[in-house]
Every structure is written in C-alpha cells, then in structure tokens.
From TrEMBL:
Keyword Transcription attached: yes
Organism for this UniProt entry: Afipia carboxydohydrogena (Pseudomonas carboxydohydrogena)
Domain Sigma-54 factor interaction span(s) in chain numbering: 120-349
InterPro entries per record: AAA+_ATPase, AAA_lid_NorR, CheY-like_superfamily, Homeodomain-like_sf, HTH_Fis, P-loop_NTPase, Sig_transdc_resp-reg_receiver, Sigma_54_int
Residue spans crossing the bilayer: none
Region Disordered, residue ranges: 438-458
Sequence ranges assigned to domain Response regulatory in this UniProt record: 2-114
Protein name as annotated: Sigma-54 dependent transcriptional regulator
Keyword line: ATP-binding, DNA-binding, Nucleotide-binding, Phosphoprotein, Transcription, Transcription regulation, Two-component regulatory system
Residue positions, PTM 4-aspartylphosphate: D52
Domain of life: Bacteria
Length: 458
C-alpha cells in the first residue's frame, strides 16, 4: 500500500503518517500539487492520495484526469466542518477525514483501498490443496491465474504467492481492471510519453514499470478490453512494453498474477477474451472454492474475525456459542469471505454476555440469520413471482431492465461486483448503465458492503 500525503499541515499529517506506516503503508509527502504530480508520474506511484483541504482538490482532480492517472483521493482538514467536507467531496474526493485523525479511521481507509492487511486463514482440506499448490509454484516466475467467486480471497492468495517468491522484497502492484475506466487503463498499465495526448504534459510511468523486479496483479482481468489484451499479450511474451505515444520498447522484469470471477473459457468462446492470452496467463490455475464448499474454513475465519473486530472496537473477545457455530456453517454465504467478515463484525457489536450467540448473528437489516431461513420460502417465491408478472404488463423493456438493475444493487447493499455477478453482466456494463440512470436523475445506491466509494471491492 503506497500513500501519498499532499499538504503542509506537518504536525497533523505527521500523526497520519505514523498511523499509516503502523498499518504497513509506504508513505511519501508532497507539499503541493506540482510535487504530487511528479511523484505519481515518476514511477513511485500511489494507491491513495490523502490531501489537505487547503489544497485546490478540484484542480488536482482535473490534472490527474487530464494525464489519465487514476488514483482515489481522500481529503482531510483540521476541523470537522461539514461544509469543508461537502466541498471536498464535490471537488472529487472520495471521502473526508477530520484531523487529528483517529487511528481506526485511517486504518479502515487504507484497508478499503489496499486490502493488503488480510491474513490467509484456512483449515478446510479443499483450501489446503489450493495453498499447497500455491506454495509449490511460489518460487517460480510462472504466470498464475487465480479464479473463484467474488469475495473468496483471490487478492489475498495473490499476495501470499508474492510473499513466498524470490520477488517478495520487491513491489507488489495491484491493478483492478474492472474499477478503472477503459480509456484510462492503457495509460495506467503502460504509462505515456509527454505529448502523447491532450493533457500529457510530462512522461508518466505505468504499473508495469512500477512493478519491475516484483509482481503485477491484474485483478478481474476478464473486464479488460480485447484491444488492450493484445498489447498485454506482447508485454508478457517479450517482456517489453510500449508507453502510449512511445517510440522505443521499454524492458520490464515482472511476474504476472491475474484473477477472475468469471469462466474465461466461456469468455473466449464469446469472443470477449483472447485465447492466446488465456494460455499465457494460465500456466498455473489456483481455483479457490466458494466458502460454502469449505465448511471448516467458516468457523476458522469466524473466530479470526471475532477476535479482530473485538480488538478493533475495544470490546471483550467472546467465543462463538455452539448454536452460533451451527448457524454460521448452515448459511450459504453467497458473498463468501467478505460477507462472513461483515456478519461477524456485526455480531461482535451486537453480542451480549460471555459468548456470541445465535441471536447476534444478524443480516444487514437486523434479522436473525437462522430465523430468516425458516420462512415459507416456496410460498413466498410463488406469490412474489405472480406479483412481478402482473407488474410487467404495459411496461417497456428498458424500464424493466432499469428497475431490475437498481433493485439488485439495493439487495447487494450497493456492492457493484456482487450485483453484476447476480445479473450476469460485466462490472463495466453495470457501471455504464448506472451512469445512464444517474444522468436521467435516478437515485443510485452508493457503493457498500466493503466497497469504498470509487473503488471496487476485491
């Protein structure tokens, strides 16, 4: 995790720096916009900008966009002034943090962006096999494809492989191919030369060069445009890249790890993914089973999260009761580890007494997880189907599609990745639809369930 702090509030930002470094971040400082732009262009890069509200955030956002640089901004200020926070958000910041900063808040923001503080916790035999294979191939430079449903821990496993490789002391650079707009992704990966497009006022080093000597993670690679896949294939085959607008190839020394929550063989058949690129990436396939397919991991992870969030919230560490363990193992966990983590976090906050009981295992809307399963599901589904059928008559296809997308997004608590999986569309298609609806004045659910505003969940 690389944090760039922009501003001159030295005393307050020194505190933020210490907190960030305690949470494993590499911190760089820049006193003004010009110095900040030099940092993000020059190869050091940044996963997050923490910017003093005294800085012209709108100008910074416009300069980043003009140079095709994609990095989230969190604003900070010495007061808890609501107007300052609103102004920063309107200018393009994703969040606002009052100073002096609370350690838990800084840690949460860093985790939301980098998600690199998570341990690889497992016990089930199904996961043991995956980890054993990961250990066997970690020391090589072979490309690795990690597949599995959203929320199973693909990025965590990628960091595990990197940490046990000969490149462990070199950079681990992660690029979410689904979160970065298509027209920015090429420059983000390969960088660009001065004058290569309007706004390119200086050379920018891309993620391939930033990762030289280390590992480059291409997260959700199935969302990458086919045209860009051709350029990626050349980079992997020849170990050279071409900056946008460049005239000379640039050698790179990296290991590629890619992830996908989709069946890439089906994507190849559909013509949305290159078969030759799949062969290049899929030298080793680490397929992570869904959480419901590894029940022993449910309890192991639950105990880990119970301790983690008890410590984070300053409450006693309570064991899970026998009834609570039964409820947890019986649930389907469609959102996998991410959903389980959120559920245990709620249970830690809601538990009373010496144990975390079944009454504390709640859904996001506060219903008990076990009691919700006992409802007359078939009768309810039949009634709901009849109501939906009646509601469709007389409506346009576009209206029905819009309502389906928005209701699914609400059901997923704003999580774009989960909603796209349920709808059977790509995350990019979903984002395009949401932009259309927003332009029409439709209220759009904000990102949620682990997703930071403007940053897709892992």
């Amino acid at each position: 995790m690389r944090l760039l702090i922009v501003g001159t509030l030295k005393g307050q930002l020194t505190t933020a720096t210490k907190i960030a470094m305690d949470n494993g971040a590499t911190v760089t400082h820049a006193e003004d916009i010009e110095l900040a732009m030099r940092v993000v262009r020059g190869g050091k890069g940044a996963d997050l900008l923490l910017v003093d509200v005294a800085i012209d955030i709108r100008d910074l956002v416009m300069r980043l966009e003009a140079e095709h640089i994609h990095v989230p901004i969190v604003a900070c200020g010495i007061t808890n002034d609501a107007r300052a926070a609103v102004a920063a958000i309107h200018a393009g910041a994703k969040e606002y943090i009052p100073l002096p900063p609370e350690p838990e808040l800084i840690a949460a923001v860093l985790a939301a962006v980098a998600n690199d503080s998570r341990d690889l916790i497992y016990r089930d035999d199904a996961m043991v096999k995956v980890v054993k294979l990961a250990q066997q191939i970690a020391g090589s430079d072979a490309s690795v494809m990690i597949t599995g449903e959203s929320g199973t821990g693909k990025e965590v496993l990628a960091r595990y492989v990197h940490g046990r490789s000969a490149r462990a002391k070199k950079p681990f650079i992660s690029v979410n191919c689904a979160a970065i707009p298509e027209h920015l992704l090429e420059s983000e990966l390969f960088g660009h030369e001065k004058g290569s497009f309007t706004g390119a006022i200086a050379r920018r080093i891309g993620k391939f060069e930033e990762a030289t000597g280390g590992t480059l993670l291409l997260d959700e690679i199935s969302e990458m445009d086919v045209r860009l896949q051709s350029k990626l294939l050349r980079a992997i085959q020849e170990r050279v890249i071409d900056r946008v607008g460049g005239t000379r190839p640039v050698p790179v020394d990296i290991r590629i790890i890619a992830t996908s929550n989709r069946n890439l063989a089906d994507a190849v058949k559909a013509g949305t993914f290159r078969e030759d690129l799949l062969f290049r990436l899929n030298v080793v396939n680490l397929k992570i089973p869904a959480l419901r397919e590894r029940p022993a991991d449910i309890l192991e992870l639950s105990q880990h999260f119970a301790q983690k969030y008890a410590n984070a919230n300053g409450v006693p560490v309570r064991p899970l009761s026998a009834e609570a363990r039964q409820v947890l193992t019986a649930n389907r966990w469609q959102g996998n580890v991410r959903e389980l983590e959120n559920t245990i976090h709620r249970s830690v906050l809601m538990a009373q007494g010496d144990e975390i009981g079944a009454e504390a295992i709640l859904s996001p809307d506060g219903d008990r997880l076990d009691l919700a399963k006992t409802a007359p599901v078939v009768a309810h589904a039949t009634f709901a189907a009849e109501q939906v059928t009646r509601a469709l008559v007389g409506r346009t296809v576009a209206d029905v599609e819009r309502d389906l997308i928005l209701e699914t997004l609400k059901h997923c608590l704003g999580n774009r990745t989960h909603a796209a999986n349920i709808l059977g569309i790509s995350i990019r298609t979903l984002r395009n639809k949401l932009n259309e609806y927003a332009d029409e004045g439709q209220p759009i659910p904000p990102p949620g369930n682990g997703e930071m505003r403007g940053v897709a969940a892992a």
